[in-house]
């Protein structure tokens, strides 16, 4: 999850740069279609078994949610600083956790509850609701949060019977179809330089998506989602060094709270696993 979020934040930086000349809808299409081409070698190596699934409808539904989340997010990206946008997306883990408990039957222990709510409190420290007027960019970001939450829940459901590669390939296939239509209305041919950065964007985005999906497969949503908060630190650093966006004092305070909560739950989870695997040496 930590490496995946770094890749996805890098993708966001490239989108921000390209959006000066290309519409976010077109960037979204190239991100998906080029990402799909990059996975073809894996598909050819594994054969048609990589495409075998009994959940084609869920694959399409997941991509519908993902398409809405991506388009909303790319639009918000053109209107907001990176750190502020990342902080708003931290609403997603809370929404995802509630949906995971209600729809997937995952159990929510006290440490995970505390970690999620402390992390969410860190996001509120950054946002300081009531002090700022919610603009169009923030509304796009909120739309992205709820769309993305729906996609993550379906990913977790699909990961129980499908590989990460299968989920990612089908996801990019449907995403390419779903983003092509809105891209047609704002189409302009990229330059050679823009094609290069679109390729890099697709590469880091695809790797990040694979890693994110794999994290959903090997662990509960409620455990790995707190580490999605690392995007705030990445976004703050990129925003400062590339776009000269100086994060506020509250961004660092909230970021510290978020990382403390994520680190604590990871440490306690490891302690619990050690106890279960070696009860003699760990009698507690």
* Shape summary: globular
**Average pLDDT over all residues:** 81
Strand content: under 5%
Portion of residues within helices: over 70%
Order of helices and strands: HHHHHHHHHHHHH
Distance between the termini: 30 Å
| Low-confidence residue ranges | 279-284
What number of domains?
1
Query: Measured on Cα atoms, how large is the radius of gyration?
Result: 19 Å
Descriptors for this entry?
mainly alpha, globular, disordered C terminus, 284 residues
Overview of this structure, please?
The chain is mostly helical. The protein has one domain. The chain has 13 helices and no strands. Helix 4 packs antiparallel against helix 8 and helix 5 packs antiparallel against helix 12. The longest helix has 29 residues.
How is this structure best summarized?
The chain contains 13 helices and no strands. It has 284 residues and is mostly helical.
